[in-house]
Amino acid sequence: MEESDREKRLSRYWDRQAGSYDRRMASVERRFFGDTRRWLCRQAAGDVLEVAAGTGLNLSHYPSGIRLTGVERSDPMLAVARRRARDLGLAADLRQGDARALEFPDGRFDTVVCTFSLCAIPDDGAALAEMARVLRPGGLLLLADHVVSTSWPVRTLQALADAVSVPLQGEHYRRRPLPGVRAMGFGIERHERLKLGVIERFAARKPAAA
Questions:
Q1: For the whole model, what pTM was predicted?
Q2: What sign results for the dihedral spanned by CA atoms 132, 135, 140, 143?
Q3: Structural domains of the chain, ranges and CATH numbers in brackets
Q4: Are the beta carbons of 109 and 49 closer than 8 angstroms?
Q5: Which one-letter DSSP state was computed for residue 53?
């Protein structure tokens, strides 16, 4: 997929964050995300794809026995994830890839996971469609992200944050993937919203083949 000049600039931005990302995110993880990574990843089973795997912060939360593949657009982020996998003794297949154009056949995976990443993918709708495509009929989609709040004062703050973060970082604070997942016909099996609705996590089942 050919990148625009803006996408190239944003890619360079995220590449530069790789070395400090985990340290900068530590307080956010504790205050806002809580147990979300564990809550989500422990539901994964079989052949698992993690989309936009970042620095591999989910790796320690997967159950044993799964066969994990991860894709990440940023090579520096991917390098950190690979080191983390080695330190954990995980035999994960971590590779460079674009969430909007996954290089896997239809129905390849039993579970697809994406955490706190759709907010920064330029075309989140295309990424969701790709996740649905590579998920087998009856497979499980596990998503978590920061989304538009249920509180109007927080929504106002999010709009102000978007005015800065979208042009500078490509990060959106008012997206919400759940309606798009429902529109694709997925059944929502587990769903929670936390922190005034800012954090949303859910497990959705792809329709079985007719």
A1: 0.94
A2: negative
A3: 2-145+176-206 (3.40.50.150)
A4: yes
A5: -
DSSP-derived secondary structure for 62-92: SPTT-EEEEEES-HHHHHHHHHHHHHHT---
Amino acid (one-letter) located at 120: A
Angle formed at CA 54 by CA 193 and CA 174, multiple of 5 degrees: 35
What whole-number distance in Å separates Cα of residue 126 and Cα of residue 173?
A: 18
Q: Tell me the per-residue pLDDT of 57-104, one tens digit each, with 9 for 90 and over.
A: 999 999 999 999 999 999 999 999 999 999 999 999 999 999 999 999
pLDDT tens digit sequence for 130-140: 999 999 999 99
Residues 6+ apart with CB under 8 A from 105: 134
d(CA 129, CA 156): 29
